Amino acid sequence: MSTQQEHFSSRLGFILAAAGSAVGIGNLVGFPVNAAKNGGGAFLLVYALFVFIICLPVMIAEMAVGRKTEKQPVGAYKSLSNNSRLWGAAGFIGVLTPFMIAVFYMVITVWLFGYIALTVTGNLDYLASAQGFGEFINSPYLFGAMIVVAAIVNFILVAGVKDGIEKAAKVLMPALFVMLILMVVFVLTLDNAMAGVKFFIIPDFSKLTPSVVNGALSQAFFSLSLGMGILITYGSYINRQTNITNSAKLVAITDTGVAFTAGLMILPAVFSFDPAVNPENLSDSSVSLIFTFLPKIFLALQASLGYVGASVIATFFFLLVFFAAITSLVSIIEVPVSYLITEKQNTRKKALSTLLITGGILTVFATLSFGMVTFFTEFTTYAGGTKSFFDVVYDIFYDTILPLNGFLLCVFVSYRWKKHNLSAELAVGNENYVGSWVEKYVNFSLGTFIPFIVLCIFLNTVAQKFFAYSLFGF
Ligand code: PHE
Fold this sequence. Notes:
2 strands; mainly alpha; Hydantoin permease; single chain; binds phenylalanine
């Protein structure tokens, strides 16, 4: 059975869908905390530089490979390399990565859903209590929430690219922007809010150590959904009138803009809760910030807003993050969906049910990793620590493999597909591309320093994560 390739209906639809993928928990929570801990404005500057100097060319290349081949990573790498087995295998990593990321991202999205349900029903005080989160992540109700989230994802994806992904992005993204702005306006009226803004923006260059710079690049890479096969797959749905370079710029600007705005929400809230807080002591993980620290901040609002008012704000916040998470989850599951449709001739419906069942089983394992089942909780050990099933999936597929996928893409585009073919594809929809300085920069950077840098980051992360050894002294 041959399936007609689907397309986004417009450039705006594509940009919103890609931005929907890029804007996620990383922007709303990960970025503000990273920035506050690591030099405020100095971090912002380095981050913005990395977005445009290193990430943007990779993003453009992913979209171009997708549009040229109208395929997901496996099909794309194969068709541009004369069916090379080796590149097919690289493409396969590009499909496996999003499938596995979906597993742990699903766990977090299910938690967010649970938090919405609990705050709506008046249980904010429970979530803010010392035992709240620990009990919550071991609650059997989570499996019910998992079914609801899977049903939402299925509802969006089964409708296809134009009527599912694009439509959802057109509703959820504007809603997210409005909610974010409303939250910022509200938070800025709280006492001591300005202390948080200052901490976020005023640069402290002494904090910029090599490991902070490394962290900024990793954060930018994953915030833009690079190395996950997503932009290749979404690229395969772009029509041939679309100007890829401009669209990619808009996606990068939107993603960075949301991350920056989220900083104006999170840090003032943290400072208004505790003016003496030292952001360096904030936990490293977005998870503990969202699920244990923020509920306390929301509960403290009851002094001025009453319990109901505080609960409304909390629900509103978790809904905002939930919207961001759903559009990311949808994008990441679409990669293996598209693989099963184009490589294995599945219908969209069948591909989705296969993935929701297999992914669902792994998600159950990951959910059981927080104490419910010892086998999954103490799954293995490396780098001197016991790791749960969830930790393993997170460490391999989220924290480590993305730069490797980025490296493979740069090498593939520059030395296998070849730069003149990339230029020819990018000139479609952008007649001024060939000969422009953007072309020169993209071609030069993708063939030289970008793959070198992302390879170093990959090797350093493997050494650190799995062997507790630092290759470059950071
Ligand atoms: N860019 C997303 C974020 O910032 C990361 C992501 C995208 C995660 C897609 C999963 C799926 O959170």
